């Protein structure tokens, strides 16, 4: 057992910027070519509860029920935005850029990591905040278990499991994992995690499927390149790995990918409700490219460009119906994934 005592609370950063276009378009797996109409509402500093921040968006996370979105910024600030509201709430932030946000399955807790090597846990209303002891290295990823009882935190050197009932009790460290951990992601059933290892030296990149109970390695597969993100289908039967120049779709029990797409720079992806399609969003010089792929028939079934200036981050809503695009001026635009 690895224990670290709770650190002091981080400083609260001032600032707020928000552009929201609430869209009610349902998720769709059909071809949709018309461009989305984006309506924006901008909050001025005098209308907002805190000062305005123009720091570029560096991380985004939707609440599980899709009613709110959290934005992390390069200046370390974190803001909660209610979908359909023109007022945001500033939460406790970091002293350097926010690199990742994750919300507990019940939507009550927010975890964040940043370039300051800090991990912050706080309630979504910002009333309670816990700052983990500063690490020697920067955390790579965080992921709540499906039951919300544990937070898995991946460092290059090790994988830590923090108990949410009492984070101050310290973290358990998974044993037997080689340094070079890029990310860790829980399977939807919570029984296993996928742990992606980088390509170090002569070694090949790898994905280890480990037991969530004791950390033992169950299976190992070899992706085409180091994995930058991994997303499971809702039923856990499949997962997709995003890499610098490729996207691969895997069966949960497979040792080889069932589909490889030559698509680079994908920022986020989401499976359709039945796991039959995969929607992907890529940041471009002009905004976003949104593509939906028929996995079984290996063909593109929808594609469109969205002209949005200065996009720095993008994320799908949990149901895949919407995409949030964070911009370099600190604002957010929300658009539908598909248009009928």
Gist of the model:
This protein is an all-beta fold. It is 0% helix and 42% strand.
How would you describe this protein?
This protein is mainly β and 340 residues long. It has a single domain, classed as YVTN repeat-like/Quinoprotein amine dehydrogenase (Methylamine Dehydrogenase, Chain H). It is 0% helix and 42% strand. The chain contains no helices and 27 strands. It has a four-stranded antiparallel β-sheet, with no helix packed on it. The radius of gyration is 19 Å and the shape is globular. Residues 1-52 have low confidence and may be disordered.
What secondary-structure arrangement, pairings included, does this model have?
Elements: E1 57-62, E2 68-73, E3 78-82, E4 88-91, E5 98-103, E6 109-114, E7 119-123, E8 129-131, E9 141-144, E10 150-154, E11 159-163, E12 172-173, E13 181-186, E14 192-197, E15 206-211, E16 217-221, E17 229-232, E18 238-242, E19 247-251, E20 259-261, E21 266-271, E22 277-283, E23 287-294, E24 299-307, E25 311-316, E26 322-327, E27 332-336
Antiparallel strand pairs: 1-2, 2-3, 3-4, 5-6, 6-7, 7-8, 9-10, 10-11, 11-12, 13-14, 14-15, 15-16, 17-18, 18-19, 19-20, 21-22, 22-23, 23-24, 25-26, 26-27
């Amino acid at each position: 057992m690895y224990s670290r005592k709770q650190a002091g609370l981080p400083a609260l950063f001032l600032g707020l910027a928000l552009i929201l276009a609430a869209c009610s378009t349902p998720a769709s797996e059909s071809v949709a070519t018309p461009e989305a109409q984006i309506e924006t509402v901008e909050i001025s500093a005098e209308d907002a509860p805190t000062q305005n921040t123009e720091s570029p968006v560096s991380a985004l996370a939707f609440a599980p029920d899709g009613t709110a979105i959290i934005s992390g910024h390069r200046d370390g600030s974190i803001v909660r935005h209610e979908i359909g509201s023109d007022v945001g709430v500033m939460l406790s932030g970091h002293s350097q850029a926010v690199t990742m946000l994750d919300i507990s399955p019940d939507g009550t807790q927010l975890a964040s990591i940043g370039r300051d090597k800090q991990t912050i846990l706080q309630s979504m209303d910002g009333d309670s905040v816990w700052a983990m002891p500063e690490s020697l290295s920067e955390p790579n990823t965080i992921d709540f278990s499906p039951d919300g009882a544990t937070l898995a935190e991946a460092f290059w050197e090790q994988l830590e499991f923090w108990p949410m009932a009492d984070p101050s009790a310290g973290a358990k460290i998974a044993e037997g994992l080689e340094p070079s951990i890029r990310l860790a992601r829980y399977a939807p059933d919570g029984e296993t995690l996928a742990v992606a290892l980088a390509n170090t030296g002569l070694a090949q990149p790898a994905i280890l499927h480990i037991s969530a109970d004791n950390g033992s390695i169950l299976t190992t597969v070899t992706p085409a390149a180091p994995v930058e993100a991994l997303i499971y289908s809702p039923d856990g039967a499949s997962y997709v790995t995003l890499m610098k120049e490729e996207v691969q779709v895997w069966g949960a029990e497979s040792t080889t990918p069932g589909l490889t797409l030559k698509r680079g720079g994908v920022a986020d992806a989401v499976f359709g409700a039945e796991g039959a399609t995969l929607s992907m969003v890529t940041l471009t010089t002009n905004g976003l490219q949104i593509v939906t792929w028929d996995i079984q028939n290996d063909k593109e079934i929808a594609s469109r460009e969205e002209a949005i200036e200065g996009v720095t981050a993008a994320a799908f809503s949990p149901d895949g119906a919407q995409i949030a695009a964070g911009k370099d001026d600190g604002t957010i635009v929300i658009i539908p994934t598909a248009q009928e």
